[in-house]
Amino acid sequence: MIAPNNSDTPSYEVLIVGGGSGGLAVAAQLRNRPDAPQVALIEPSDKHYYQPLWTLVGGGVFPKEESERNEADFIPPGVTWIKDKVATFDPDAHTVTTEGGRTIHYEQLVVAAGIQIDWDTIPGLVESVGKPGTGVVSNYSYDTVDATWEAIRTFTGGTAIFTDPKTAVKCGGAPQKIMYLAEESFRKQGVREKSRVLFMNAKPTNFTAPAYGVTLRRLCEQRGIDINLEHDLIALRPEVKEAVFRRGDGSELVVKYDLIHVTPPQSAPDFLKRSPLANADGWVEVDKHTLAHVRYPDVFALGDNSSLPTSKTGAAIRGQAPVLVENLMARRAQRALTASYDGYTACPVVTGYGKLIMAEFDYSKQPKESFPFDQNQERYSMYALKAYALPRMYWHGMLRGRM
Fold first, then answer.
1. Percent of the chain at pLDDT above 70?
2. Is residue 364 part of a domain?
3. Segments in 142-249 forming alpha helices (H)
4. How far is the C-alpha of 391 from the C-alpha of 387, rounded, in Å?
5. Count of structural domains within the chain
6. pTM of the prediction?
7. Does any domain span residue 1?
8. Would you state the pLDDT for residue 7?
9. Which amino acids are annotated catalytic?
10. Strand 39-42 and strand 11-17: pairing?
């Protein structure tokens, strides 16, 4: 049901902020329990997107419409949907205030508001991304993702740049997945020999988990992809097709491009940065094992907006949601919080058409693999899992509370 805009100050046993992967998974798991609490969910959007598919949309495998569904179809039965945005939090009073002016009371709060794409922090990006003739593309928006494939498909040679910012991003491997697809496309199109492919990564390593990073670096060497670490995109000059990078030593480098795929800087949503729930970096500050807030015991968080020191992926949420639900219900029953999250995350690194390395690891950054074979090599089976099985598991399993 959708809460009316003119309702008096309501109170809910559990209030969830955010109707993305984390919020819907937690809402469904709570409502599936025999001791299900009363749940409300704050989410302004009418549409829900399966964003892991956008790599393959940008690579020309699927139309972007495959990734879109109606939010209403995934609000669990019995959950009150409040179509609004959160403006402020008052965890001492157990309330949130919405942009629509409503104050809502809760017994327990779950914050699953996702991550913010900071497009405007790179001068020249907003006015050029996805626009015909600019060569500037990005998979990080439903509105621009199809322009990526158009730019790759029509590429006739030159310099193709793929960026990865200093900040945390959705799925740490995504900035380079589209690069591997593009490089293979250039070969199929007969333009690879007259093309430079540059990976400009602001971070000091090419992948979070070292074991997989070694393999990915070797693949880049074999395919003639030039990896440049500690090169952070700070500006675009689209009128002359130049990208400005700040190097690790503080100097600047200007590179001409014919195509540039930009992974924009990302951060905690502004309304969270301003809140008492945030740590110094703006993320909701929770215990990395229990997912309970370190200062407010009735507040929990998961997913991209949390301070959890692991990669921000849907697979991580799949591991976090049952732990959060178990500990939230323990809190309601005044029991000890015994469920523990070990930092598990997964990044299906697409390395070409029909090829994928399934990276799985935990807080230690060591592999924590699910299959009885070496996942640190390219496999079609893992590509098929990502392209065809995981979307179905997401829509029909994870968002329905079946993990």
1. 98
2. no
3. 145-153, 174-188, 210-222
4. 7
5. 2
6. 0.96
7. no
8. 55
9. 171, 347
10. parallel
Mean pLDDT (whole number) for 165-194: 97
Element (H, E) at 317: helix 314-332
Contacts of 99 (CB under 8 A, 6+ apart): 84, 85, 86, 87
Write out the H or E segment, with its range, that includes residue 329. helix 314-332
Q: How far apart are CA 324 and CA 107, in angstroms?
A: 15
Same domain (yes/no): 223, 123: yes
Q: Comparing C-alpha atoms, which of 35, 50, 33, 38 is closest to residue 13?
A: 38
Q: For residue 171, what are the domain limits?
A: 119-266
Q: What is the H or E stretch that residue 180 is in?
A: helix 174-188
Distance (Å, rounded) from C-alpha 99 to C-alpha 133?
38
The values of phi and psi at residue 30, to 5°, are -65, -45
| Whole-angstrom distance, CA of residue 29 vs CA of residue 22 | 11
Copy the structure tokens of residue 52: 């892991």
pLDDT in the model for residue 292: 99
Q: Are 85 and 237 in contact (CB under 8 A)?
A: no
Q: Dump strand ranges (E) for 263-399.
A: 266-267, 299-301, 345-352, 355-361
